[in-house]
């Protein structure tokens, strides 16, 4: 009797604990589904870890959306679906930095191949310059765009636009097209390089215009068109600047040499 009575409460206690854990799991799941789960503070590691919590298929889908812009398709609303990440933009920027530096060095080497007056030296400083340019563009320009749009929305009492991380995300993915473009810039044909620049600018610029136009179109016409024009011009300056600096065509001025007969005549005149 005593043994059975002592065993029963233990089993009951185990059942109670199991039920409590199940209830906690269901409560946590319901909080996540309702969006009521509190996130960590921005000063914690867990806060930033959530922006790198993406799988390969999500990144590939977002890359695909950045190189195939469709009319009426908003990159943030339809591709990101209000779930921005920093994993894709970060590695796209890193890859683009090394792609520009390495392809630029190879282009300089191939253009100067066969020249007796050129001695090849690896230009490692191009990695630093590319990193500064790409990361400043990928962070400062979105910061300026986000700040301006936030200010205009408050002034005009418009509906809320995009968050800063969504703006950074769309800018980061829009740079992906320049990775294969920079590799093709190695080919020593100026007309092909400018054609590739035009194609890359149209593709990446379309992603930005289709994304930000729905936010600014309710503003005044002057402000709306000026904002979109500024976004496009800054993007074009990045493209043209990278091409002109990393893939400039080297020109070598041949050293003038005196003809043998002319040299002999000068030597004869001096002896007389």
UniProtKB/TrEMBL annotation:
It comes from the Eukaryota. Residues 21-30 have a biased composition (Acidic residues). It is a multi-pass membrane protein. Keywords: Membrane, Transmembrane, Transmembrane helix. The keyword Protein biosynthesis does not apply. Residues 67-238 form the Yip1 domain. It is found in: Golgi apparatus membrane; Golgi apparatus, cis-Golgi network membrane. Its main location: Golgi. The chain crosses the membrane at residues 86-107, 127-149, 161-179, 191-213, 225-246. Residues 1-14 have a biased composition (Low complexity). Residues 1-35 are annotated as: Disordered. Belongs to the YIP1 family. This is Protein YIPF. It comes from Salmo salar.
């Amino acid at each position: 009797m005593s043994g059975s009575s002592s065993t029963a409460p233990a089993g009951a206690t185990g059942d109670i604990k199991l039920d409590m854990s199940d209830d906690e799991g269901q409560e946590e799941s319901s909080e996540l589904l309702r969006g009521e789960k509190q996130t960590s503070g921005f000063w914690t590691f867990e806060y930033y870890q959530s922006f790198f919590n993406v799988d390969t298929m999500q990144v590939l889908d977002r890359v695909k959306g950045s190189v195939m812009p469709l009319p009426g398709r908003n990159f943030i609303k339809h591709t990101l679906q209000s779930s921005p990440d920093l994993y894709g933009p970060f590695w796209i920027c890193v890859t683009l930095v090394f792609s520009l530096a390495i392809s630029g060095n190879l282009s300089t080497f191939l253009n100067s191949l066969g020249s007796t007056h050129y001695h090849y030296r690896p230009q490692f400083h191009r990695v630093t310059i590319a990193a500064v340019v790409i990361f400043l563009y990928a962070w400062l320009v979105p910061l300026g765009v986000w700040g301006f749009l936030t200010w205009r929305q408050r002034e005009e009492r418009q509906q809320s636009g995009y968050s800063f991380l969504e703006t950074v995300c769309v800018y980061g993915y829009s740079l992906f097209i320049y990775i294969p473009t920079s590799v093709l810039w190695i080919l020593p044909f100026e007309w092909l390089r400018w054609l590739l620049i035009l194609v890359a600018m149209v593709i990446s610029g379309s992603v930005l215009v289709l994304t930000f136009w729905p936010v600014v179109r309710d503003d005044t016409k002057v402000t709306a068109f000026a904002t979109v024009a500024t976004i496009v011009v800054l993007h074009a300056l990045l493209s043209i600047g990278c091409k002109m600096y990393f893939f400039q065509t080297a020109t070598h001025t041949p050293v003038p040499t005196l003809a043998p007969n002319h040299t002999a005549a000068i030597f004869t005149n001096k002896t007389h």
